[in-house]
Amino acid sequence: MIYIKLSDDSRNFLNSVNSTFGKDKDALLLALSKAISNKLVLPTSPVNDIEEYYLMSNLESVRKIIGAINEICVLDIESTQQLIKDFWVMRYKVAHGNNYLLAANTPHGVLASFMGFADATGFSVIDTIANSGNAIINYLYNFNKVISEIVNSSGNYVWIKWRR
Fold first, then answer.
1. Contact (Cβ atoms closer than 8 angstroms) between residue 45 and residue 56
2. Contacts of 51 (CB under 8 A, 6+ apart)
3. pLDDT of 90 higher than 80
4. 95 pLDDT band (50/70/90 cuts)?
5. Which residues are CB-neighbours of 134 under 8 A, at least 6 positions away?
6. How far is it, in rounded angstroms, from Cα 125 to Cα 117?
């Protein structure tokens, strides 16, 4: 069981997530999804089919990490997988020249439109981030730590390519 291999800090964080999950569910799922998507590989050059690349290169990693987290915290797996993919696609577009050159002045902010964030994830995600305050940053930091420990503690995950 992965839980036993985690540090005390990570176990304490996941225990607190279980106790506050109903209250902060959207912010927690966003932070978890972002943390996982940040660990996934991007192609070194543009690909013909982003969807196919994601499925072939990252889906298995996503499922294994979500499975490990889901042993400890019950997740909405479909929503989490979709958010992970949305964040990954956004990273891909920024990395491979599909940058957004013009910004629209929207109620959700120029930066969100400029970076393509609103297009990649939807405005409800932006609202959740805005409404969660600093909590989402804390969740992201802790999920990054937990995911790194999960990957490093199990031989089943060593094939994930980490960015440095």
1. no
2. none
3. yes
4. confident
5. none
6. 9
Q: For the segment 106-116, what is each residue's pLDDT rounded down to a tens digit?
A: 555 554 554 45
> d(Cα 66, Cα 81) in Å, to the nearest integer?
8
Token pair, residue 68, equals 């490990």
Q: Which two tokens stand for residue 127?
A: 């609202």
Cβ density class 113-144: b for 16+ within 10 Å, e for less: bebbbbebbeeebbebbeebeeebeebbebbb
CA of residue 53 relative to chain centroid, distance: 17
Q: Answer positive or negative: Cα dihedral of 22, 26, 27, 29.
A: positive
List, in order, residues 6 or more apart from 10 with CB less than 8 Å away. Answer: 142, 145, 146, 149
Averaged pLDDT for residues 34-57: 92
Residues 33, 80 contacting (CB under 8 angstroms): yes
Q: How high is the pLDDT of residue 21?
A: 67
Q: In the chain, what's the furthest Cα-to-Cα distance?
A: 49
Q: How many helices (H) and strands (E) does the chain have?
A: 10, 0
CB 3 within 8 A of CB 71: yes
